[in-house]
């Protein structure tokens, strides 16, 4: 139950007024049924008294009691409806708050988290739990509070009979509590155990319904196979759940019997007291009502406690995500990013190993880059080019060595400041299912409404011809996810992605395979404008196309995580090393020699 106070604080911060209203209403409305019972008893006693008298007629007192009963009924209905309304608003507001918290945390976490399957288990569980359980706990707590208040009222009435009645009451409901707790936690652990398989089933589900996979799933005939995999996993879950539910029902049935015995035992006791004239007939009706209600209430309180225990386990999964601390963080007192850079950037003996990997991906990287210089990174697949750029953007932090800008280590800048100084286009750039203006403007969020700037970036990336073809120009929704969306070809998308990188006035530009998907003419165009586009910017260019690589001031060759050659195109050709070998191979295949 340890998460309950924290959860209440969270609800309080989401909607303090609605929470107070809900608690107040619950307290008041739970006492009304107790008053109703008491009025009922007074009515019966009054009727018995009238029957024993000579007049045998409605007395003003009896009329008043009936009116009071009716008033209580109305009050109960009104309070009930108002409470339902308040709880609806409260849970909507809280759900939004809880989800925003989850998203904000997801945003703060490191890229490395997203590359670990354990993290995805935690995230999945938090999403499943976070979207439901915190609100359920709040509703349950409110119900619990109401039930306890009502029970206190009822017990006050019942104490008039005898303490043994109370004893019978407790004995008859405790087993229900025990069964509730036992099966709640079993269900929770079952669900938790199932997380990795459930994620696999969800993955098949996603592949079968995601437009990205539609083509391959059909052409390779993967559909039936994947549906079968999905069905098998889900069926196993259903089977496990059925077995648990069966055992729970049996246990529940046997303890219901106990409850019945408790009620009738106590009923017999009070009947005996009535016959002996120890209590009135009104008391007997009060007792029957109050005992049955109290029994139901205690049972429901205990079940609620068991459920609260279960829900708390789920809520703990939500907090488990919120409690993960990001490793890549801003310093508490960041240094301002140099404007402009003077000495430039330096990698000093940098080593980096991916979390969970046993070999370092980068080993002893030393490189100095002047402001405004354009560097091309060249190397075979997996040699570490993209990794180097991920370190520069602090998507990961290095394990050893230093990366400094104007002699200040990257970690001493705020993440926001550093990243706003880097314009970037990754190989696997994002394709937002939003309009063209947003797709480009996201490269510089504060200026994304400045259409002139967006058009300028599009021109730089050679994307204007693509956009001009679109019926609604910059307002056209891209992708097929939303109504009216238009999909683009791979190369066209790449031009949009490139335009996004050109949106900023950042001092550093990173282009990872900017022309991999564009046609030769577009690449040539870009080549013509490249100098002008990157003027004054420190630029990193990763490419397997040597026509693109030649645009750089210096070329850095990476092999198995180490820098093996650095120089201009001409210098490296003279050296006749790895670069010259790769360049000649590509040239040969183009020219058809060899
Ligand atoms: N997120 C990751 N977790 C673990 N290892 C990774 C991760 N990303 C890359 N690697 C490993 O690091 C090495 C370098 O990858 P990197 O993406 O930097 O290569 P690259 O030179 O950019 O390759 P390419 O030319 O194919 O883009 C590879 O061996 C790869 O397996």
UniProtKB/TrEMBL annotation:
GO cellular component, one term: plasma membrane
The protein, known as: ABC transporter ATP-binding protein
Matching Gene3D superfamilies: ABC transporter type 1, transmembrane domain (1.20.1560.10), P-loop containing nucleotide triphosphate hydrolases (3.40.50.300)
A Pfam entry, by short name: ABC_tran
GO terms assigned for molecular function: ABC-type oligopeptide transporter activity; ATP binding; ATP hydrolysis activity
Organism: Leptolyngbya cf. ectocarpi LEGE 11479
Keyword Transmembrane helix tagged: yes
Source taxon at top rank: Bacteria
